[in-house]
Amino acid sequence: MAADDNKRKKQKELLPTDPMAEAGRLIFARQIRRMLSHEAGSRTGADIESVHQMRVAIRRMRSLFNLIGAHYRPKTTARFERGLRQTARALGAIRDLDVLILDLQHYQETLSPDDQAVLAQVVSMLDARRGACRVRLNQLLDSKRYARFIRAFQRFAKRPGKGARRLKRSEAPHQLRHVLPLLLHERLARVRAYDTVLPASDDAILHALRVEYKQLRYALEFFQPILGRSAGYFLKQVKEMQEILGRINDIAVFTGYVSRLNQLRPEQSAVLNGYVAARKDELVVLRERFYDDWARFNSRAAQRKFSDSLLILR
Fold it and tell me: Quick check: helix, strand or coil at residue 19?
């Protein structure tokens, strides 16, 4: 018990009175550690979750810069956002193939033995492409540019005040308790504004909404420790909506990717056409579920949970 108490004392916690720049620095430090903890696994590909988790950590940091970047000097944010974007691009090329191959393998289990063998040929081709993407990822991770980026980012996350924008007035809102409610309300407003364009079956609209849900989710997760208990309930609904939209987006990516494959034999094309048809049937069900959940998310009861979670910051 004593060891656990000492560990808790050493771990800095967010406080409502923290300057936003320093609260963000604490979150960046945690996400950098998370990103680097999955680097070795991403290099080898032994577990596809490594690429996923490393990419998620990067996405969270890019989202955090988007949320609170105004509290840092522009040159600071531009440098680190550029490094995160380059790394995310290399990971994303692998992740798209990881998810597509896994989905094809699940579909493969529903086929006849002959069709399973045909689809295995396609999977093998995609796996070779994934291997080439991993070579490019490792070249990036081995580069001096990446090493410099990581060292500088770690220094930024460890040194209070580094890269922070100076206050023009001492009374300017800068503490977490003053700034966070406005930021979270803005994130929520960007989600709810889609009620002006829904219902819509346009994949581009649903993809954009998925991104806004993800930004809202990350913002809530970053600061959940200092929000009211009802934040957990509301966050659960946000996650459910993001997961539905994520699957809808995956299907759009999958079907688009396989439609661009060339030099396929007739039997391979036939099996992939069956796969696309199955995914489109799934899409119909997912969209119906989405609109039901969208109405529930926008209900007065759900939105009250969000508002209640912010009252503790008064």
Answer: strand
At 164, the amino acid letter reads A
Distance between CA 162 and CA 141 in Å, rounded? 25
Model confidence pLDDT, tens digit, residues 199-215: 876 888 999 999 999 99
DSSP 175: B
From the CB of residue 312, how many other CB atoms can be counted at a distance below 10 Å?
Answer: 14
This prediction's pTM:
0.91
Rg (Cα) of the chain, in Å, rounded?
Answer: 22
Q: Name the nearest CA neighbour of 231 among 155, 154, 119, 311.
A: 311
Q: Output the DSSP codes for 92-142.
A: HHHHHHHHHHHHHHHHHTTS-HHHHHHHHHHHHHHHHHHHHHHHHHHHHHT
Tell me 81's DSSP state: H
Nearest alpha-carbon partner for 290 in 249, 261, 230: 249
